[in-house]
Every structure is written in structure tokens, then in C-alpha cells.
Amino acid sequence: MDQNEEHLRLLSIFHYVVAAFAALFALFPLIHLVIGIAILTGSFPSDGIDSEARWVGGFFVAFASVWILAGTAFAVAVFLAGRNLARRTRYTFCLVVGGIECMFVPFGTVLGVLTIIVLMKEPVKAIFGVALPPSAQ
Fold first, then answer.
1. Most C-beta atoms within 10 A of its C-beta, which of 29, 43, 63, 113?
2. Which domain covers residue 39, as residue numbers?
């Protein structure tokens, strides 16, 4: 097997692994979401829910919801990039997700940098069917 093909195969597998880690990480704030909902519904014993408690509960719900949605979207994008790397399709999408992955320290950073390095090679561009500039043909 060609070395570039092997690199793409390994990158695809590692994208699936990082997507699983990202999905797990995205679910960490579920406890905050539950606590925020409990505060808003008055499940905690108190004489009454005042405006400060409602503000805290609302903040917990909003923060947790945004974190879960953003993390899940990121995990799905990484998974799709892995799938596209395996199929050798959507070159630009894989390259963009590789750049975004660099923010997911430490595993995403390593994977993102390696993805960018591999995808910038001319033989890999040819595998994906990306048109080469006239000087490179």
C-alpha cells in the first residue's frame, strides 16, 4: 500500500477516536444542566425562588446547553471528516476541520496538524481529485 494511502487510513481512524473523545467531553456539563433546571423549577428546598436564584439557574441551563450543542457539533464534524478521509472525498471540508481541531488540546491539536500536513501533499491532493495548478502538472 502507498504511504499516503496508509496515512489517510490512519488519519481516518484517529478522527473517529477524537470524535468519540469530543462527544464524551461535550456531555460533561449535563450535571450543570440538571442543576440549572432544578433551580428554575424550584426542586431545591427554599422559601421561594428569588430573582438571583433564577438568574443562576438560567445561567447554568444556558451555559450547559451551548457547551453541549457546540461540543456535539464539533464531534459530528470530526466524525464526518474521518469518514470523508476514508472515502477520499470533500478535501476542503477535511482541511477546514483539521484546522478547527487544533483548538481541541491536546489530541485534536496533534491530529489537526498532522491532517493539514498530509492533506497539503501533492500526491494526496491527486488522490482526492483536487485540481493541481498548471505548474505542478
1. 29
2. 10-125
